[in-house]
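In response to the reviewer comment on reproducibility (Comment 2.3), we provide here a single inverse folding case reported in full, input and output, so that an independent group could reproduce the run without further information from us. The structure tokens appear first.
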């Protein structure tokens, strides 16, 4: 297993102020995520997994603690620096595809060319996702799984160092979800991106190098898979 940490999280807490009530989402997380691994972060709704992902991705800030990306302190970064970090280093995949409906698959992926230093051609990114024959189809002409693969292609077209995925199969049935998981595994294996997938679906953990389980804002288990399943072997 590679040993270079891409992310180092130390004493991370997050408390949301809901009027007179304070709701803790993270309660002192310590975590290192190594380069080149596919990590699955498991947890039920409210466990803190989305909050953790959003802070690592520069979409949210902690209440206390620190997050380092390759030794750089993200918690000390200003808004401009976080914007550059998100643009140049991180690809995001969410449960809902967020494609622009009046743009084709190719045009949706081409959007990243405006913010990337060395973008991957949209045909190459969509080809990596098995969608070379669907370049000029609009989202309404694509299945849910195809739309999610377009979203993944859009994320990887800027050649991100890390790919952060929030419930990427949450809106999909098992057969379609497996195809999406295969696409994520391909990004990890062929492009070398460090991939983190958060999910409530424990079955998906079988394909990971490493599985981190959160509960009530804390890490309750952290393990390495000695043998991994292919996405086609996963059942839920």
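Designed residues, in position order:
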């Amino acid at each position: 297993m590679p040993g270079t940490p891409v992310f180092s999280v130390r004493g991370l807490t997050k408390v949301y102020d809901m009027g007179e009530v304070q709701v803790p989402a993270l309660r002192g997380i310590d975590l290192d995520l190594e380069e080149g691994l596919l990590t699955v972060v498991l947890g039920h709704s409210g466990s803190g997994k989305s909050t953790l992902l959003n802070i690592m991705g520069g979409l949210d800030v902690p209440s206390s603690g620190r997050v380092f990306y390759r030794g750089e302190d993200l918690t000390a970064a200003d808004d401009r620096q976080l914007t550059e970090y998100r643009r140049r280093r991180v690809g995001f995949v969410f449960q809902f595809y967020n494609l622009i409906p009046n743009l084709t698959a190719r045009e949706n992926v081409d959007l990243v060319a405006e913010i990337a230093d060395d973008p991957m051609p949209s045909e190459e990114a969509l080809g990596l996702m098995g969608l070379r024959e669907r370049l000029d189809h609009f989202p309404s002409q694509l299945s849910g799984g195809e739309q999610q693969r377009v979203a993944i292609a859009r994320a990887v077209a800027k050649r991100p160092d890390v790919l952060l995925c929030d419930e990427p199969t949450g809106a999909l049935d098992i057969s379609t979800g497996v195809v999406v998981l295969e696409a994520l595994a391909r990004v990890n294996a062929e492009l070398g991106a460090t991939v983190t997938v958060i999910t409530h679906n424990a079955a998906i953990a079988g394909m990971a190098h490493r599985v981190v389980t959160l509960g009530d804002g804390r890490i309750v288990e952290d393990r390495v898979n000695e043998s991994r399943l292919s996405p086609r072997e996963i059942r839920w």
